[in-house]
Task: structure prediction
Amino acid sequence: MTHARSKYSRGTPSGGTLLDTARIRADFPILNRQVNGRTLIYLDNAATSQKPRHVIQSIVDYYERYNANVHRGVHTLSVEATDVYEEARRKVARFINAPSEKSVIWTRNTSEAINLIAYSWGDANVGEGDNIVTTAMEHHSDIVPWQQLARRKGAQVRYIPVGRQGALDMAVARNLIDRRTKLVAAMHASNVLGTINPVGELALIAHAVGALMLVDGAQSVPSMPVDVQALGCDFLAFSAHKMCGPTGIGVLYGREDVMERMQPWMFGGDMISEVTYEGAKWNDLPYKFEAGTPNIADAIATGAAVDYLDELGMGNVWAHEQALGAYALERFKELEEFHVMGPRDPGLRGGLVSFFHDTVHPHDLGQALDRMGIAIRTGHHCAMPLVRGHGIAAAARASFYIYNTEAEIDALIDGLKDAAGYFARK
Ligand SMILES: Cc1ncc(COP(=O)(O)O)c(C=O)c1O
Result:
């Protein structure tokens, strides 16, 4: 992990680096917004991050200066658009250390990337009596596509249980993953518990029985250095909107030899090399999986988001998030009647804290905080089985990113004390 100094980081007396939040915040126009008379404190980053000016401007530049369709034109604008669009794909490939940009497919989001695998790879490789192993802490995006695949094929979905400390039970995982397992699909970082899962270890276990490994990187790629070769995964899915990029675009990384053998799941323009009235031949990777005019502007903006995060240094981003997560865990200890979900050890988790109160509903807490200009998430966090497994229907979540500060966490804690006191008196 690199902790390189950049113009966005500052040294600490102990020789480490911290993100220079004042400098970063100046790049995010929305952070100056007033909400209910207070300066916005945005702690809903696990749902979607805010966007720096540089990313917003890259979209404006495309539409104002070189808007054209890609891949098909000989005119200047089309050539320029194609160059910047394909350069963005190369930036993403470098960002996750993919061996080639051919294995980087643009999708709409993480969910679509996982569905692509479920249909294209799953339908061809999973059969009756086979199983897909996922975890009990997954986001619905990494549960429902496998349930549907299993239903289509007469296969089974198995869930690696979550232990009391909020970590996967790896002993059970070793038993669940067997010769009939075709795929292991697990989130790298939990959007509810904050747990960092040992996906590299799961990949080894999967490969030992001939199964493939899919990593849901929706919460990890924005926050920590992710290297697909070091993890040894076959597929990685993530969304740009959680990592300073725009909505409407995500990425599927797939091992090139696996994806060469896969059939497309959507058909139309750009994904073919030849069409006759009788049939069609498929284009090369990555285009085989990208039917129709792509989301050009947002792909370009994803490239800009990667530039921004590269400038910060992902090692620094991770250190910053973990430090904020640890600080929040510490401060939550002051709160009576609040329960924090996930690992107690800050070293085992990232920069988010989900919590619930003995008597006050999370929605009431969320609304009370909103009146103070503080944005958090409340609900089931698209992980209903996990949240219900804690004996609750909903939880509140504060999630931190590169521009958040300890002072904002202090404001959150004060706000929760006030809100809980107010509802208790009612
Ligand atoms: C762990 C995880 N997986 C998948 C998703 C789905 O991402 P998207 O809605 O961008 O498809 C999310 C979004 O919250 C997530 O946190």
